[in-house]
Hints:
Blueprint: E1 5-10, H1 17-25, E2 30-33, E3 40-41, E4 44-45, H2 52-69, E5 73-76, H3 83-95, E6 99-104, H4 110-116, H5 123-132
Parallel strand pairs: 1-5, 1-6, 2-5
Antiparallel strand pairs: 3-4
Helix pairs in contact: 2-3, 4-5
Amino acid sequence: MTILTAYIMRGFPGSGKSDLVKDLIRGREAAIHSTDDYHLVDGKYIFNKDKIVDYHRQNLEAFQASCKEGIEVVVCDNTNIIKKHYKPYVKAAKKYGYKVVVVIAGEFDPHICHERCKHGLSLSHIKDYKGQFEL
Length: 135
């Protein structure tokens, strides 16, 4: 019997979330859902603050659809800095019988995260994430 698993990733931009996801899903049927993907324009990340609420809604809906479909592994690959950001994903996964695993990416040094971040965020922005992060 296949165990349905939902991974809820948490961490700053550049903390290693997406790299961890690759390890977690290796060799398994998976659907990865990241709000960052909605900011891609011709393959380039262009943040659109006016669309952020809509993009998060679309990402959650896509995650729910993957759960409903029964895909073996579903992943929410967002920053999920505060608990209320990922609670709807947990609720959706549990509704469809998924085991939920919340994964906190291991890098917490804002300077290292800033160097590794692929989205052009400022160091001060990443430091703000650190100040808001809920354990």
